[in-house]
Design goal:
Distance between the termini: 92 Å
Number of strands: 9
Structural class: alpha/beta
Shape: globular
CATH superfamily: Vaccinia Virus protein VP39
Number of domains: 1
Number of helices: 6
CATH class: Alpha Beta
CATH topology: Rossmann fold
Length: 250
């Protein structure tokens, strides 16, 4: 069974609770699906994060649709796109080009289906943008003007690789927006909140039915203070004598 066939067999289109104008493939029981995919593959498989719209992605998509100026006419990348909610929202809001990136082929299949369900065009790619060398921008992120990250700071190892990459992108002029309900490894000091939404969470993924979720912008890097240059009044300029009379070269 191909990824596209599996996604269509396991999921059904449904409106997103906080973003009902967007329809996504949704799985009724994400954990049961994870068990089935591992049984089919016979090897450990990534969790099917694509199977339900997470709080961070919902909040980010809502903000993009509420304020299309964030993405309109710009080249946008949705990092760890899952089923493509944020990417679809960016396309609906008028982005010039939208890339939807995820390391899971099933997520890519779900994102392709989401694009079709919502009548938008997405450039969907299977790629792990955190896999490359530190300080090197992955080709899939080249040219990004807006980078959108929904709910990706859930584990330390991911967060420690993600933040430097986002800073690298910001240093090249990209606007970086993050949707997050307060995960344990969110780098709060590096971000500033620009919006907040009360997000209904489906599928039993959270410990509560509604998560208060922030949309945050990556802060610009803080430049170290420049120490003023204090002239050394005791130093003698070249060609001067200690008497203060300039010596004429012979």
């Amino acid at each position: 069974m191909t990824p596209d066939e599996l996604v269509r067999a396991e999921a059904a289109p449904a409106p997103v609770p906080l973003v009902p104008e967007v329809v996504l493939p949704v799985v009724a029981d994400v954990m049961a699906l994870w068990e089935r995919t591992e049984e089919r593959a016979g090897t450990p498989q990534p969790p099917p994060f694509w199977g339900s719209p997470w709080a961070g992605g919902q909040a980010l998509a809502r903000s993009v649709l509420d304020d299309p100026r964030l993405v309109a006419g710009r080249r946008v990348v949705d990092v760890a796109c899952g089923s493509g909610l944020v990417a679809v929202a960016a396309a609906l809001a008028g982005a010039a080009d939208v890339r939807a990136l995820d390391l899971d082929p099933l997520a890519a299949a779900a994102a392709r289906w989401s694009a079709a369900l919502n009548g938008v065009v997405l450039d969907v790619r299977v790629v792990d943008v955190l896999e490359g060398a530190a300080g090197v921008l992955p080709a899939a992120l080249a040219g990004a003007e807006v980078v959108l990250v929904g709910d990706l700071f859930y584990e330390r190892a991911t967060a420690e690789r993600l933040l430097p990459l986002l800073r690298l992108l910001a240093g090249r002029g990209a606007a970086v927006l993050v949707g997050d309900p307060g995960r344990a490894h969110l780098p709060v000091a590096a971000l500033e909140e620009v919006a907040r939404h009360e997000v209904p969470v489906a599928g039993g993924l959270e410990d509560r039915a509604v998560r208060s979720t922030a949309v945050l912008r990556l802060r610009p890097p803080v430049e170290p203070p420049v120490e003023p240059q204090v002239p050394d009044l005791g130093a003698q300029p070249s060609g001067s004598s200690s008497s203060g009379v300039r010596q004429v070269p012979r």
